[in-house]
Amino acid sequence: MTSNKKIRVCVAGATGWAGSELCRGIVSTKDLELVSAVSRTNANKDLNELLNLSSKQKIPVFGTIEEALTIPCDVLVDYTKPDIAKHQIITAIHKGVNVVVGTSGLSDADYEDIKLIAEQKKQAVLAVGNFAISVVLLNKFAEMAARFMPQWEIIDYASDKKIDSPSGSALELAHRLSKVRESVKTIPIEETKGVKGTRGADINGMQVHAVRLPGFIISLETIFGMTDEKLIIKHEAGGSAKPYVQGALLAIRKVDSFIGLKRGLDNIMDFN
Ligand SMILES: NC(=O)c1ccc[n+]([C@@H]2O[C@H](COP(=O)([O-])OP(=O)(O)OC[C@H]3O[C@@H](n4cnc5c(N)ncnc54)[C@H](OP(=O)(O)O)[C@@H]3O)[C@@H](O)[C@H]2O)c1
Question: 133-237: which CATH architecture?
Answer without folding.
Answer: 2-Layer Sandwich (3.30)
